Description:
Number of strands: 22
Helix content: under 10%
Mean pLDDT: 83
Distance between the termini: 33 Å
CATH class: Mainly Beta
Radius of gyration: 23 Å
Oligomer: single chain
Number of domains: 1
Strand content: 35-45%
Amino acid sequence: xxxxxxxxxxxAFGLLLFNDVCPAQNQSAFQQPDLELPPSPSEPFEMAxxxxxxxxxxxxxxGDGAPSSPTMSYQARTPAKTAGKPxxxxxxxxxxxxxxxxxxxxxxxxxxxxxxNLKNISADxxxxxxxxxxxxxxxxxxxxxxxxDEANRLRAPFAKPGSATYDLVRWRNYMNVxxxxxxxxxxxxxDASANFSDLPYTGIDxxxxxxxxxxxxxxxxxxxxxxxxxxxxxxxxxxxxxxLISPLDWANTRRNFEGLRLNSPGxxxxxxxxxxxxxxxxxAGDGGGIGANLGVNNFSNKLDTANRGxxxxxxxxxxxxxxxxxxxxxxxxxxxxxxxxxAGFPVGDRITYGNNWVGTFNVSNGDRQWLTDVEGxxxxxxxxxxxxxxxxxxxxxxxxxxxxxxxxxxxxxLPWEPTIWGFYxxxxxxxxxxxxxxxxxxxxxxxxxxxxxxxDNIARQNITDANYRLTLKPTTKLQLMMAQHFFQLATAxxxxxxxxxxxxxxxxxxxNVGNEIDFVGTYNYNQNFNLELGYxxxxxxxxxxxxxPGRSNAGEFYVQTTFxx
Length: 565
């Protein structure tokens, strides 16, 4: 029997917390040639701008959540005026590593962090020739370990609920080469491993020694004196609040695509357009599907390849001309050639028009804030997938939609800065699955983990979720979050869909799916290292009990450490 790491990790968490609350009077930093001096453990550091996202996104192992942008330019931040010791720099590591920003190094008074000497290295230091004077090279990556203890989640095989403790280990390593202000080449590898599980591995657990990102950026135009970038190659995508497009950082693997992206950052408007094919095991309907030739059974020990039978494209516009508000408007297109993903996946065309507004209203001179997050969209097209899953032939018109409304309040002047949110999430289902219209919303390639329960039982399809969440900051580095969800089917005439989009249960068993409560603690020791602990509990309702009689309620516990360099 393998030794369980919980005692050691919990002990480390306690020591780090004690060190943060009761720092030593005389602390000496570990120094080594060619390595950087980490910030003092008692020194708070600034997290990166969140790109207008709801604060809970940063809690769910998704980095800072900022929208991806191919731009390589750095916009200098105005240094904070402090009377004493300078503050450590903002968090330079982003959700997608190709967006990492180490421009703070231009400030000669900045506090160094571990690994920064490997960023923006002038190539003429390595190759002292004139053509290399305008070239810079960066290296970096991440090591992540997660201990998981889960029981009775809604995961395949559905008819046999089970429990397991297992380890998830992920290593990412990248190299970035930039030339002047018009060219960039980026490559990133990933190795995702799972060990000691008594349950079958899922499509997001394993992907050995593969290429996660490999692309070039070319400056092709200028708009309002800002560059327009063309990016061909393999790449991760992340837009807006990530509800429909996300690299899925919680997964041990990460979601990626192959194709073309055009990005035009601006003063008030950022514009994006892309046409791609999904690639790896984290992509539902491709690697994340079911069957002997799909998912982890096919890709875990082979090089990933793009699925040419699925085309995903769209356009995304972000307006940031109003202070403390971000507005996204978008169109998404997804085409599936064949019935490859199993029941619950589309066959045909799905087009969605949508909008998202994230805003902050300061009151009491900024001591309190009202927070908003509103998103919704209408989906249409033509689909054969629902009929094919029922053993019938033909095509249905698509008429579906989703909506999210969130209102929050933050008390910045109170101890622990409490923030409370209330949310209502809705995604449509089909009132007559065999009829002429398919009204089951397709969730594309989005993030449900942070929004529809951290235990990962529920898809954004035929579901309603009334939920609230509370976040607290006992110290500058420690953040606590509690959330509770109440799930109902949007219509009893359609089934429940699990997080991968697969149908679960049968119609006619009511709409009560159950409720979930989540607890997460995150300790950001410095910009390089953090530690998370979480516990989730799902109490199943009558619908799930009817589908699998005798199934016990679900629970999950995890401990995770992440080191970025």
